[in-house]
């Protein structure tokens, strides 16, 4: 690990994994943390609960389809949901820059209240700190969520098995490209908006209607490519994807083409990856499509036995194939 941090250390790619392994895991390592799922499964508590925490530093604070306030609720609600849990309570901590407009702060908190109501969770405790001008960029928010686990067994990144189907609940890359448009004032990207949304009710329906699933993850930082590489490594399997079946909006495709980006590496904030036995894939897709957030749900590939090492392979539309490797660096940091 280098002696100082770079922005790509927070990208969700290889640099992030090195920091976690060489610093945090070296000091904090324990069996619960070591599972590296979106939330911790606290099975010694009865009934078991899932717990997750996340910090939000996105800039700009407001963008088409959401704000730092909606992200702070949706992101933590979704992480708790990925363990087959029903999110119930959130804590919320603000770090605010001296001189911040109270009107802006109220807009953010109003967004958070609306998002929490939509997700059916309560914000029950919190903290506020004000730091000198220049000590932070306007506003940082940290939320922690807890919820009761109802899935049995609980999904985990370690549970993918050869023969499983790989599903996504909707189009890839919407959030990452939207934040880039807003930050860089890219006027030609007119038809993009963040997909920020709470997935807890949709996830509950998938598990109740399709039966237990092996893996649930939300492809945030590093996008679909980073998330599937993490799952492949955790489970010791490989994954093969079909490019033609991966949903990507035309506006995102054209924007990425202009900017030299790959939508499979861009962040999402209202989508999930679901891996489960192939015979239950259609039931899971039907459950997703009953919700507006899952209308574009699709089966995009399958889990295979690994060869020399876990890998993610993309079969292209023209009949070739390429590796989807873990991203090194990030085209746009601070997207959540």
Q: What would you call the structural class?
A: alpha+beta
Following the backbone from N to C, one meets helices and strands in this order, namely HHEEEEHEHEEEHHEHEHEHEEE
The CATH superfamily of the largest domain turns out to be PurM-like C-terminal domain
Nearest-integer average pLDDT: 93
Highest-level CATH class of the largest domain: Alpha Beta
Ranges where pLDDT stays below 50 over 5 or more residues in a row are none
Beta-strand portion reads 15-25%
- In whole angstroms, the N-to-C terminal distance is 24 Å
How many strands, which pairing sense, and closed or not: the largest β-sheet? Answer: 7 strands, mixed
CATH architecture of the largest domain: Alpha-Beta Complex
Number of domains: 2
What is the alpha-carbon Rg in Å? 19 Å
Instruction: Kindly state the number of beta strands.
Output: 14
Helix content: 25-40%
Taking strands numbered 1, 2, ... along the chain, how are they ordered across the largest sheet? 9-11-8-12-10-13-14
| Overall spatial form | globular
CATH domain topology of the largest domain: Phosphoribosyl-aminoimidazole Synthetase, Chain A, domain 2
Count every helix, treating DSSP H or I runs of 4 or more residues as helices.
9
């Amino acid at each position: 690990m280098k002696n100082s941090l770079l922005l790509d250390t927070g990208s969700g790619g290889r640099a992030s994994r090195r920091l976690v392994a060489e610093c945090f895991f070296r000091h904090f390592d324990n069996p619960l943390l070591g599972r590296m799922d979106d939330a911790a499964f606290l099975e010694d508590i009865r009934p078991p609960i899932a717990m997750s925490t996340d910090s939000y530093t996105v800039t700009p604070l407001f963008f088409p389809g959401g704000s730092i306030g909606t992200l702070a609720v949706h992101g933590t609600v979704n992480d708790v949901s990925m363990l087959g849990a029903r999110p119930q309570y959130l804590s919320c901590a603000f770090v605010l820059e001296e001189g911040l407009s109270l009107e802006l702060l109220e807009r953010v908190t109003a967004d958070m209240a609306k998002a929490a109501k939509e997700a059916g969770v309560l914000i029950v405790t919190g903290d506020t700190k004000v730091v000198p001008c220049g000590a932070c960029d306007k506003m940082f928010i940290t939320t922690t969520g807890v919820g009761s686990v109802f899935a049995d067994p609980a999904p985990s990144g370690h549970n993918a098995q050869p023969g499983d189907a790989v599903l996504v609940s909707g189009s890839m890359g919407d959030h990452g490209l939207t934040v880039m448009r807003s930050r860089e004032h890219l006027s030609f990207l007119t038809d993009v908006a963040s997909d920020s949304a709470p997935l807890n009710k949709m996830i509950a329906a998938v598990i109740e209607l399709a039966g237990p699933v092996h893996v649930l993850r939300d492809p945030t930082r590093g996008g679909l490519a980073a998330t599937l590489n993490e799952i492949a490594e955790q489970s010791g399997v490989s994954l093969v994807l079909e490019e033609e079946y991966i949903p990507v909006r035309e506006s995102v495709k054209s924007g990425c083409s202009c900017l030299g980006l790959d939508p499979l590496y861009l962040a999402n904030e209202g989508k999930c990856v679901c891996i489960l036995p192939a015979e239950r894939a259609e039931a899971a897709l039907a459950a997703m499509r009953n919700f507006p957030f899952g209308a574009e749900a699709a089966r995009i590939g399958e889990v295979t036995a690994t060869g020399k090492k876990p890998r993610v392979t993309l079969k292209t539309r023209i009949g070739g194939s390429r590796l989807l490797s873990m991203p090194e660096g990030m085209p746009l940091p601070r997207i959540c």
